[in-house]
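Protocol step 6 of 9: fold each sequence in the batch and record its structure tokens directly after the sequence line. For illustration, a two-sequence batch is reproduced in full.

Sequence one:
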Amino acid sequence: MKRGTFVLLTFVFVILVIFMNGCGAYNNMVNGREEVRKTWQNVETFYQLRIDKIPNLVATVQGQGDFEKSTLEAVINARASATKVTVDPTKLDAASLQQYEQAQGALSSALGRLLVVSENYPNLQTNSAFTELRAEISETENRIQVARSDYNNKAADFNAMIQRFPRNIWAGVFGFSPFPYFQADQGADKAPKVNFNFKDSAK
């Protein structure tokens, strides 16, 4: 085999290896990115489920004529603000996640305050509609925390993947960037600890 031919074949082989490596890296990063986006949709679904339950909760509490007005208004306003903040999963960055988390955190705080104040109204504690809604919201809050944790785990896996060599090179070439994380105990994002089992808290 002539030297020129050998050099040419070697060059073609190297290019082919690089091409195949790039294709594999790209496909893996796409799959990882879609996994993160899928878990993000779960987060939004459970936050929306909580938002959807609040009007019924407010209506039930309003039936208690002397209920603390400022607390009720805080929930209504926080819900209105939370519904205005949406995130495009294809453009999920630290700034948009922080804005979303702050809005949902403010709603968590207002809702937590309402449930605490409701302990002062015995009629509400014996209202079957209120106790059912309280239990549903408690379950939804748990689902939100699980969904947030799942999202953070998937984001961590993806972020680690695109930072490893040589995939970090391909990530830069193809424009893949790391996903932001939900932060715990950060200002308004810190949801109050609410005891949903008022029977136990009354002992």
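Sequence two, same batch, same settings:
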Amino acid sequence: MTLKDQITEDMKTAMRAKDAERLGTIRLLLSAIKQKEVDERVVVDDTQVLTLIEKMLKQRKDSITAFELAKRDDLVAKEKSEVLVLQAYMPAQMSEQEVTAVLDSCIAEVAASTGNKVTPAEMGKVMALLKPKLAGKADMSRVSQMLKAKLAS
């Protein structure tokens, strides 16, 4: 069963259970998936669905920060409940040691292909290798920071 199919089944379950909050969040996710399929004239795969979920999670986290500054506790609670629903579809997050191991292997791979030490200017090449390996399994902004630190040293 694909991730999209699982989300659709979860929507049906939420409808039967009359869980309005969960249902609303799942419908938002399915709407984003459908929008991507219509815009790009493709059928999304699990990787693309995970990318959409990551984007939605980032939006929710940014909103939580803004609502906390505005002291809007009602909206903070709503956004946090949406984050919990969306995170249920994400794969287990990798530990920092696992991310570092993948990072080191990608740096070595780029160094082997260029024939010299990887410089910060070549960070894009390493990130291109990292993205498919870590998609949904690690916070890519954190991975980017780790990579910058490694390449700077």
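Proceed to step 7 once all outputs are recorded. Observation for sequence two: DSSP finds seven helices and no strands in the chain.
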